[in-house]
Amino acid sequence: MAQASRVPDRLQPTDERILRLLDVEGMQVRVDIEQQLSLPGLLTARRCRSLADSGLVRNTNWCCYEITERGRQCLRRSSVQSFSR
Question: Which of 31, 45, 57, 78 has its CB surrounded by the most CB atoms within 10 Å?
């Protein structure tokens, strides 16, 4: 039986950067995410896939990603946690 990926309590810094970019810019091609955030290609591919598996982003085709409402909620939670420290 397939196990659903759970949303992490805290976002990794790279994941948070990707989610923030998608929240501001909307749908992005993975290569554009790499370039705008100055990330290595393999890292970007792994993190985008992980975010999609967690339901935080939607993989609209093989290389385009957009943030989901669940991703926005997670991002807001992460911002509140960072602010309260």
Answer: 57
Q: How far apart are CA 67 and CA 54, in angstroms?
A: 11
Could you tell me the two tokens for 37? 């955030």
Contact 18, 68 (CB under 8 A): no
32 phi/psi in degrees, rounded to 5: -65, -35
In DSSP notation, the chain reads -PPPPPPPSS--HHHHHHHHHHHHH-SEEHHHHHHHHT--HHHHHHHHHHHHHTTSEEE-SSSEEEE-HHHHHHHHHHHHHHHT-
Quick: pLDDT tens for 34-74.
999 999 999 999 999 999 999 999 998 878 999 999 999 99
pTM of the shown model: 0.84
